[in-house]
Amino acid sequence: MTTTTNKKRILSGMRATGRLHLGNFVGALENWVKMQGEYENYHLVADWHVLTTDAEHTDQILPNTIEMVRDWLSAGIDPNISPMFRQSQVKEHAELHLLFSMLVTQSRLERNPTLKDQIRDLRDKLQARDIADKDRPDNEVTDSGLVTYGHLGYPVLQAADILLYKGNVVPVGEDQLPHVEITREIARRFNRYYGEVFPEPTGYVLKESKFSRLPGSDGKRMSKSLGNTIYLSDSEEETGKGIMSMVTDVQKVRRNDPGRPEVCNVFTYHQKFNPDEIPQIETDCKSGELGCVACKKNCAAKLNAYLAPMRERRQQYDDNAVMDILTAGEAKARAVAQDTMIQVRDAMNFG
Ligand code: SF4
Fold first, then answer.
1. What are the extents of the domains in the chain?
2. How much is the average pLDDT of 80-96?
3. Are the CB atoms for 183 and 163 separated by under 8 Å?
4. d(Cα 54, Cα 95) in Å, to the nearest integer?
5. Which one of 102, 198, 207, 285 is separated from 160 by 20 to 30 angstroms, measured CA to CA?
């Protein structure tokens, strides 16, 4: 195994879905940046994984990859410390995926709870696009008619992604823990059959805080599909508009009405991006001293100040710079992956 440090190795990735919003930042990316010194981080652009939900529009994968990686860089991931790479450019992912697919049963994969979520997403998509046979309502398409071999094998490819780099730790949301468990089972089975090659990685659950599910402008969880997002790449003006359009305490109708900060989305943003002023805002909101327009303007200013260093960093990375960073990261990732595959092939007598 190619080891450059004694630090534990983390493999973390995102599907290549384009620009990231503030919810992605506080839910995951911010943690990646914080973990940079403590662990040896590898950051995967899961571009093959995108095919499970959108196999038709492959022309969007590269532009989406570039936008997403630009966001990683602007958030403060240092590519010299933490390689960033595309899954599709390290073919060993496919080879290990194939070998691992022999070590897990169909029924085990069918029990994977995230499969149900995928089916639900697929149904939503089918209805939204109206691509179903017009003579056959969507609800008559059976689950097994929707699920591809790729959906079922999603956690197997993810196990290959993680174990190829011998990741010790996998930062995940609570909902992704079943995938880490499948990875551990595959690693155990492989080691039992062929000898000790893989570590059993531990799922590092990203701490759920009220900020992990940052509300969008409508108060629901921030999500591209709901159109309630503030993107990291938004301009100051767009960010300001996003904050000004936010739902606040519906009972605070006039400026001097007493408010309830505990139910107000803007207050959540103050807590995250303007913590120093929280006691004052809370007091003034409750007493009716503070009006929502002024409060939102202040929030927008603080958020823009928070995002300013990211905007500045973003300027350094045009498309060519991002591609150069990916190419360099892919060379580093490939070296580790090839090293692992030599051990795998030897262990399995395919050497
Ligand atoms: S004053 Fe601020 S915290 Fe209070 S309800 Fe209005 S926007 Fe929310």
1. 9-213+318-347, 224-311
2. 97
3. yes
4. 22
5. 207
Nearest-atom index, ligand 1, CA of 260: 5
**pLDDT value of residue 343:** 98
- Please indicate whether residue 68, judged by its CB atom, sits closer than 6 Å to ligand 1: no
Worst-scoring range by mean pLDDT, 23-37, 48-62, 202-216? 202-216
CA-based nearest residue to 234, from 307, 170, 305, 177: 307
Q: Which CATH number fits domain 9-213+318-347: 1.10.3120.10, 3.10.20.30, 3.50.50.60, 3.40.50.620?
A: 3.40.50.620
Q: Which residue reads 């995926």 in tokens? A: 97
Q: Is 246 in the pocket of ligand 1 (CB under 6 A)?
A: no
> For 63-67, 70-74, 96-100, 248-252, which range has the lowest pLDDT when averaged over its residues?
248-252
Q: Is 266 in the pocket of ligand 1 (CB under 6 A)?
A: yes
Q: Would you state the pLDDT for residue 1?
A: 39
What is the number of the ligand 1 atom nearest to the C-alpha of 270?
3
What would be the CATH architecture of the domain defined by 224-311? Orthogonal Bundle (1.10)
